[in-house]
Amino acid sequence: MSIKNLFESDLKVVNTGLSSFKESLDEVGTDAVQVEWRPPVDVDPTLARVLKENAEKIDRANEAVIAKILSGTPHLVGLGIALDVIPGMKKNLILHAGPPVKWEDMCGPTRGAIMGGLIYEGIARDIDDAEKIASSGEIEYAPCHEHSSVGPMAGIITPSMPVFIVENKAHGNFAYCTMNEGLGKVLRYGAYGPEVVKKLKWMEQVLYPTLKKAVASAGSIDLKNLIAQALHMGDEVHNRNRAGTSLFYRAIAPHVIRTADSSDVAADVLDFINGNDHFFLNLSMPASKATLDAARGIDFSSVCVVMARNGTEFGVQLAGTGDQWFTGKAPVPDALYFPGYTKDDANPDIGDSAITETAGLGGFAIAASPAIVQFVGGTANDAVGYTLQMYEISAGENNIYQIPYLNFRGTPTGIDVRKVIEKNVTPFIDTGVAHKNPGVGQVGAGVLSAPVEPFRNAYIGLANRVK
Are residues 264 and 322 in the same domain? Predict the structure, then answer.
C-alpha cells in the first residue's frame, strides 16, 4: 500500500500496550487486536548473559529432568505412622507447609494447626497451653518438603499422625502425606476445636488401620493411572478431586470390605471417603512429590521441583540448585468466599498443594476442569487460556496426563524458571483459602498467579551457580 492511500483505507490496529488503548478503539468501531505481550522481568543483564551463554548445558540438564519426571510411576504402597516412616521425624518435630518459617513469623492458620496438633498429640491440655508450648522452643519446626513429605494448606504433620506412603517405583524414592479430613473447620485450615481433634482421633484409630489393611490386600495402587483417568473425567486433581476420589473408592472398596474388622467399620470408612470429594488430593500431592523428587540434583537444570507456600512466603526449589529455597511474599488468592467472609478475612496463599501444578496438574491442567474458574466468575475459555499460557513457561509436555479438550495434548510439565522471567508469566495455581486468624478454618476457594519474586530469586541463584 502506498503512503498516499494509507488514510483512505479502514484502520486496523495491533495493540501490544495497555489494553485500555484497545478498549478506546473498540468504542469508536476501529478493528483492533490485543496482543498479550509483556516485557521480561527486570534482572541483572550480566546474569541473563550467563544463562544464555550456558543455554545448551541447561537445556541438556532440563531434558534429563523431564525424562525423570515423565518416567515416574507413583504407587500407593502402604500407610504408616509419621514417626515410624517419615525420614528424620522426631517426637518434638512438627512439619509444616512451604519454605522454612519460625514460630514468630508464622501466619494464623499455621499457628492454629500447630496448636491443634499439640492438643491432638496430648502434649498440650488446651489452646492456651498449646500456644505456650509452641512458642517455648521445646518444639522444632521444619518444612514437609525437607522430609520427603507434603501437606495441604497449613500442612501440619505431627509424630502420631497416620500418613500415606507413596513409592515412585521407577526410581525407588518415597513421599508421604496425611489423610484428608474434608472441608470446612479442619486442622489443615487452622481450626483446632474439640470436633477437629475428635475427627483426627477417629482417623488415627479407625480409618488408618482399616485403610492400611486394605492397601496391603491390594498390594499397591497405581496413582499415575488414576490421575490420568481423573483428568479425562473433569478433575485437575488439585481443587477438584471428585473423579479421583471416586476412582480411588472403586479401587479400595473391595479390599476394605474383605479386611475391615466389621461391616460397620467398613461402612463408616467407605462413607467417609465417599462423602469427601477432596480425599484424593492427599494422594495426588505425594504422587506429584515422589515424581518430582526423583529429578532433584541434576546440575544446571532450571526446572522447578517445588512450589510451596507457608502463608507468609511463597517458596521455589529448582532441580539444579540443590535444597536451596528461593522465596517471596505470598499473595492473597482471588476467590469465591463463603457467606459472611470477604478477601479482608483471607490469609495469604498457603500449602504444599502447588506441588500438583509443579508436576503439570492443578492450574496447569485447568482446561480439563473448567468448572474451577467459576470460583472467580471465569469461563471455560478462560480455563483453556490459562493452560495454553502455561505451555509457554514449561520445559515439556506430559506423555500420560492429557487434556481431552486440547485433542488429548499432554499437560504442560516442568516449569522452566528462565521462561518465567523471559516471558514475565508466572504459574497459574488454584487453591483453597483459610481465614487469617487461627481457629476459624476455610473461608473460600479460588485462583492466583504466583508472585514473580521467588522465580526472580531462583533465576539469580541458578545464574550464580552456573557461572
Answer: no
Query: Cα dist. 434→140, 151, 263, 338 in Å?
Result: 24, 14, 36, 11
CATH of the domain at 354: 3.90.1700.10
Residues 127 and 268 in one domain: yes
Decide: helix, strand or coil at residue 163. strand
Domain boundary (255, 287, 319) is at 287
Contact 111, 155 (CB under 8 A): no
Q: Supply the pTM of this predicted model.
A: 0.92
| Total number of domains in the chain | 3
* Residue 139 buriedness (CB in 10 A; 0-12 / 13-18 / 19+): buried
- Per the structure, the complete domain to which residue 30 belongs is given by 3-34
Strands of the 313-318 sheet, one edge to the other: 326-329, 313-318, 304-310, 350-351
- Residue 190 CA to residue 167 CA, distance in Å, equals 29
CA distance linking residue 74 with residue 374, whole number of Å: 31
Are 313 and 358 in a shared domain?
yes
Residues 6+ apart with CB under 8 A from 204: 160, 161, 162
Q: Residue count of the chain, please give it.
A: 467
**40 domain residue, yes or no:** no
Same domain membership, residue 93 and residue 223 = yes
Q: How does pLDDT run along the chain (467 residues), one tens digit per residue? A: 455 555 566 666 665 555 555 556 565 666 655 556 578 888 899 999 999 999 999 999 999 999 999 999 999 999 999 999 999 999 999 999 999 999 999 999 999 999 999 999 999 999 999 999 999 999 999 999 999 999 999 999 999 999 999 999 999 999 999 999 998 789 999 999 999 999 999 999 999 999 999 999 999 999 999 999 999 999 999 999 999 999 999 999 999 999 999 999 999 999 999 999 999 999 999 999 999 999 999 999 999 999 999 999 999 999 999 999 999 999 999 888 899 999 999 999 999 999 999 999 999 999 999 888 876 677 889 999 999 999 999 999 999 999 999 999 999 999 999 999 999 999 999 998 999 999 898 898 888 999 999 999 999 999 999 88
In a domain, 92, yes or no: yes
Whether 224 and 355 share a structural domain: no
Of 266, 287, 308, which residue constitutes the final position of a domain? Answer: 287
Is residue 394 within 8 A of residue 410, CB to CB? The reply is no
